[in-house]
Design a protein that fits this description.
The protein is of the alpha/beta class. The chain has a domain of 206 residues: Rossmann fold, CATH 3.40.50. Helix content is 40%, strand content 16%. The chain contains eleven helices and 13 strands. The longest helix has 20 residues. It is globular.
C-alpha cells in the first residue's frame, strides 16, 4: 500500500470543478489534505456557490474562471500552481449537442486534448479523465461491462467516446499516467436545475409548482443511477490505484430503474400528487443502461454506499431547502 500514490501534499487541479459532480469531488479532495487545490471552470453550467463547503474547509482553495480549451491559459494555471494531478470533468452536456452539435463535439474533443498535451509536455504527473456512460449507447447486453461495444447515439456521446480514445492513445503512445472513470447517471444535491437540467431537478421543480411531470417516450427506458458522492470517492480511489492506468472503469450502482419508476419514487418522497404526461421520445435517448461494476470492485474495492431511496431523500431535501420550502 505504501507505494501507491496519495493526494496528501499534492497540488490538485479540477477542471469543471464548480459543476455538479466536480464540486462534490472538490469536497472529497479536501479531506485528502492536498497542498494546493485549484478549480478551473467557465461557469457554463457550474456555479461558484457550489464550492462554498469546500472553501469553508480549505480556505486556500483557488477558483479560476477559464475555459479549459484555452491551452495557453490552462498551461499558465498549471505552472502557477505547480500542479501534480488533474481531474478532468470539464464538459459540454448532452442537451447542448442536440442544439449545437458541431460546437459541442469540437469543445468536448478539445477538452480532452488540451490536458493530454500538457501531460505529454511533463507539466503535471497524472490525469484522471471523466467519461460518460453515454459512450456505450443503448445496451446490447446487460450488465454493460467495459468491453461493451460503443454505439453512441448523440453527438455528445460520440464526443465523449472520442475524448476517451484520445486519452487512451496518448497514454499508450507517450507512456502517460492516465486513467478514465466512466460514471453512469449521477444524482444528488447541486445537480443543475436551470438550463440543461437533469430529470431529478426537473421533476422536483415541476412537482413543487403543482405542474404535470413530463416524461419523454413511454418511460420504460432505464438508467443506472449512482449517488454523486460515491462517484467522487471512486475517483480518488482510481487515482490511488496504479492498476487503473490506461483503463476505463465503470462507476455505477449496478442496478437499473425505469424513468417511470424514478418519477414514482420522487413523487412519493415529495408527497406530491401531480399528473404525469408522456411526450414524444427525445432524439438519441438510450433505451437501456445497467452497468457491470465488477472491474471497479476488482481494482479499487468499489461498492456503492448510497441506495437510490436514501439518495433521493437527501437530494429532494436539498432542493426543497434551496427553494426555501420546509417539510
Amino acid at each position: 500500500m505504501s507505494d501507491r500514490p496519495r493526494l496528501a501534499g499534492k497540488s490538485v487541479l479540477v477542471l469543471g470543478g464548480a459543476g455538479f459532480i466536480g464540486s462534490h469531488l472538490v469536497d472529497r479532495l479536501v479531506s485528502e489534505g492536498p497542498s494546493r487545490l485549484t478549480v478551473v471552470d467557465n461557469l457554463f453550467l457550474g456555479r461558484e456557490s457550489n464550492l462554498e463547503l469546500a472553501r469553508q474547509q480549505f480556505d486556500q482553495l483557488r477558483f479560476v474562471n477559464l475555459d479549459a480549451t484555452d491551452a495557453a491559459g490552462l498551461a499558465a494555471v498549471v505552472n502557477a500552481e505547480s500542479v501534480d494531478v488533474v481531474f478532468n470533468l470539464a464538459v459540454v452536456p448532452l442537451p447542448a449537442s442536440l442544439e449545437r452539435p458541431r460546437w459541442s463535439v469540437e469543445e468536448n474533443v478539445a477538452l480532452a486534448i488540451v490536458p493530454c498535451e500538457l501531460l505529454r509536455e511533463g507539466r503535471f504527473e497524472t490525469l484522471i479523465h471523466f467519461s460518460s456512460s453515454e459512450a456505450y449507447g443503448s445496451a446490447s447486453y446487460v450488465p454493460m461491462d467495459e468491453g461493451h461495444p460503443p454505439t453512441p447515439s448523440t453527438p455528445y456521446a460520440a464526443s465523449k467516446l472520442a475524448g476517451d480514445q484520445i486519452v487512451l492513445s496518448y497514454q499508450h503512445t507517450f507512456g502517460l499516467d492516465a486513467s478514465i472513470i466512466r460514471p453512469f447517471n449521477n444524482f444528488g444535491p447541486r445537480q443543475n436545475a436551470g438550463s440543461y437540467a437533469g430529470i431529478i431537478p426537473v421533476v422536483v421543480g415541476r412537482a413543487t409548482r403543482g405542474e404535470p411531470i413530463e416524461i419523454y417516450g413511454d418511460g420504460e427506458q432505464t438508467r443506472d443511477f449512482v449517488y454523486v458522492r460515491d462517484t467522487a470517492d471512486a475517483a480518488v480511489r482510481i487515482y490511488e490505484e496504479p492498476a487503473t492506468r490506461g483503463r476505463i472503469v465503470n462507476i455505477a450502482s449496478g442496478r437499473e430503474v425505469s424513468v417511470n419508476e424514478l418519477v414514482r419514487l420522487l413523487l412519493q418522497v415529495l408527497e406530491a400528487d401531480v399528473p404525469v404526461e408522456h411526450l414524444p421520445p427525445r432524439a438519441g435517448d438510450v433505451r437501456r443502461h445497467l452497468a457491470s461494476i465488477d472491474l471497479a470492485r476488482q481494482l479499487i474495492g468499489y461498492e456503492p454506499r448510497t441506495s437510490l431511496s436514501e439518495g433521493l431523500a437527501e437530494t429532494v431535501a436539498w432542493y426543497l431547502d434551496s427553494m426555501g420550502i420546509g417539510r
